[in-house]
Amino acid sequence: MLVLTRKTGQEIVIDGDIRITVTSCGDGRVKLGIKAPPHIKVDRSEVAARIAAEDAECVVELACR
């Protein structure tokens, strides 16, 4: 894992076309803005886990038919 230190307003660039900007820091939170091409899916980890679980459930339902 790469760990970087950034200040509010500074960015991290991934693969030339994904930009992560620190929009604010404080109260134990960091807010990030993410710009990515439309074909790149960006989700919070808990949302991605829920989607994966729902997809797995659909596969099981189809296999049981």
From TrEMBL:
Alphabetical list of Pfam families matching this protein: CsrA (PF02599)
InterPro entries: CsrA, CsrA_sf
Signal peptide: none
Listed GO CC annotations: cytosol
Gene Ontology biological-process entries: bacterial-type flagellum organization; mRNA catabolic process; negative regulation of translational initiation; regulation of bacterial-type flagellum assembly; regulation of carbohydrate metabolic process
Main location, first listed in the record: cytoplasm
Key words of the record: Bacterial flagellum biogenesis, Cytoplasm, Repressor, RNA-binding, Translation regulation
Compartments in which it is found: Cytoplasm
KW Metal-binding (keyword) present: no
GO MF, one annotated term: mRNA 5'-UTR binding
Similarity comment text for this entry: Belongs to the CsrA/RsmA family.
Stored PANTHER family: CARBON STORAGE REGULATOR
Subunit structure: Homodimer; the beta-strands of each monomer intercalate to form a hydrophobic core, while the alpha-helices form wings that extend away from the core.
Annotated protein name in UniProt: Translational regulator CsrA
Species per Swiss-Prot/TrEMBL record: Gemmata obscuriglobus
